[in-house]
Amino acid sequence: MLTIHGRNLVGGQFRPALSEKRIDLVSPSSGRLIGSIPASEKRDIDAAVSAARAAVEGGTWSRQTAVERGRLLTALGALVSKHADKLAQIESLDTGKPLRQARQDIELTARYFEFYGGGADKFGGETLPYLNDFNIQLWREPLGVTGHIIPWNYPSQILARTLAPSLAMGNATVLKPAEDACLTPIHLSELAVEAGFPDGSINVVTGSGDVAGASLASHVGIDFLSFTGSPETGASVAAAAASNRIACALELGGKSPQIVFEDADLESAYPVLVQAIIQNAGQTCSAGSRILVQSSVYDLVVEELGRRFAELEAGPHDLDLDLGPLISHKQKTRVLGYLELADQSTMVAQGNIVSDAPPDGFYVRPTLLGPIDGDSRLAQEEIFGPVLICTPFSDESEAVRLANGTDYGLVAGVWTSDGSRQLRMAKALNCGQVFINCFGAGGGVELPFGGVGKSGHGREKGMIALHTYSRLKTVVQFHGH
Ligand code: TXE
Fold first, then answer.
1. Ligand 1 neighbours (beta carbon < 6 A)
2. Of 40, 92, 217, 370, whose CB has the highest number of CB atoms within 10 Å?
3. Catalytic: 285?
């Protein structure tokens, strides 16, 4: 079994935590030890923020042109592709996700670096019409040092999605990966150095959320914070950022509905409806975790979904089944707690855990529940596991009321062949992304992404992220008659 002992990257140097303390990592598939990471503290974060500050204030990084920054990002993307096999093995081992999904994640990771590598020298300011004799320019400048706290569900993809646009705009970065899964971030930091990123431009510091994460979120030396994780931690990091008067982008998950009308092409919808919840064992911020089905086809749809759920298999990451284990014992307990809330009469179907799955792995059977009341906790709260709930609706207005009836608003899917209804629904849905006759949990490098309400605010992905990671300066020049 692979055992990895990771190091921090601070100011271009790989090193353990200053205290030399470490956190053990376990494999979600077996519950067995697979390595350890530095248990960094405030002084490690201080060192990383100082290194980043030096990089943007006079360091080599601050002198790189947009073209050079773009080339570095593109080179890192190429290195990720070159080492894709190894990175996918590590991602799969560390998170428990099936190997083929880890391969897709690594492909997308490379794509983020490529995309923003191409974007770095194509994004600039503007001029404005104003009074005669004046020239008005709007400049796009880097923010300075950006802090990034990322979760364990898509460690490599989320690292790339948040670091790449920030680096493209010329910021220096400090990233704190999640203590439950951070082996790919550690490997990506090594590839970043190999690609030639100057000292201090990328710093990666591992550790627990309440120590290393909280130190980064509250650090007076950062100019912007990007956070992806739970709404509760999101609120606490946003409060810390506010006390330092810096902005933040928060991506805090969702309870994303897929709305199936009676005129939908059901055969095309079924595999997508299932995949959108079992991908990453349901631990996807944009998982399609609620299905709203028009009453006239409710029984038909739920019966077919039930048939498909009963065939699903969960097992160790390297068996590459439909889904792997959950990330940790804590997540497994959380998801089983939600299943206990379900009335037995609403249990439609459950998939299986393969018999050779190690007993100490964090497996949960994929489960289909319905009909579930739209006001119940199962319909309102993010379960973050392979649990899909079904709720019937009678007409378009009830579908909208149910779809918008949670505190979250990240993504929604609409399945209907009526073109006018597609647009009416897209307008009425209160969320950041709407998919029509398709659904894209994760992925979509080009597509601006972010939520409303409890799902957070700010947008990442796509060219819009270059706005997020830069600041506008208005320059007013009087040039005379
Ligand atoms: O999240 P946390 P957890 C949701 C999902 C899941 C729940 C709990 O519903 O069941 O959150 O997961 C760091 N200051 N999502 O407990 O705590 C932590 O080290 C600063 C949705 O793992 O938010 C990690 O790096 N940082 C989500 C990151 O925050 C702190 C993905 C996320 O951990 C901190 C993950 C603190 N006080 C969970 N405490 C999505 N949007 O995709 C923790 N952290």
1. 149-151, 153, 176, 178-179, 209-210, 213-214, 217, 228-230, 233, 236-237, 251-253, 285, 331, 334, 382, 384
2. 40
3. yes
